[in-house]
Amino acid sequence: MKYIIAGTDRPDSNTLKISKHIQSIYQSLGEAVEIIDMKEMKSHLHDDIHYGKTSAGMQPYIDKVLGSDGLIVVVPEYNGSMPGVLKYFIDHLKFPESFEYRPVCFVGLGGMFGALRPVEHLQQVFGYRNAFIFPERVFIMNVHKILAADGSVQDELIKNLLMKQAQGFQKFTEALKTSKLDANAVIAQKKKP
């Protein structure tokens, strides 16, 4: 299963609204995906010792990443980078197996630049962790203008870009899986005697 990481803990965030739209795209393509919501997860970020010792509250989120077929990271721009809660979540994840050979794609949302900076920062982090980064990124500028009151996406160009990314990411993850180059295949191979 793939997971969408809604990369902020802001209440009623546009990030979660876009994440739900992306989830509906994957459903329309015949694939169930789940959302990892930083707002839900953040209550567990501080209930463990961190750096190698995981609490029972954090374990389900970590297990989702460790077992995922791919990650779709949806990130807003905060002060020229990603929200701190997203980086802190990443810091909780096991090294190297959380991201090594794991397919990942990015959607940035924000004002004038559509979260270009946080997506580039995340590409550096995931690249350092040896993830397979899907090259088609989506940047949503002026996100507040493309969302209706009910949270639905109103802009046809953005809908098309998100659909194209989802279709491409499905092919990308399937190609890696078929070739046994994805993280789950690599982890299974390492476990063999």
TrEMBL record:
Annotated Gene3D superfamilies: 3.40.50.360
Pfam families linked: FMN_red
Protein name: NAD(P)H-dependent oxidoreductase
Every NADPH-dependent FMN reductase-like domain range: 4-141
UniProt source species: Bdellovibrio reynosensis
InterPro entries on file: Flavoprotein-like_sf, FMN_Rdtase-like_dom, NAD(P)H-dep_reductase
PANTHER family reported in the protein's UniProt record: CHROMATE REDUCTASE, NAD(P)H-DEPENDENT FMN REDUCTASE LOT6
Coiled coil regions in record: none
Signal peptide feature range: none
Source domain of life: Bacteria
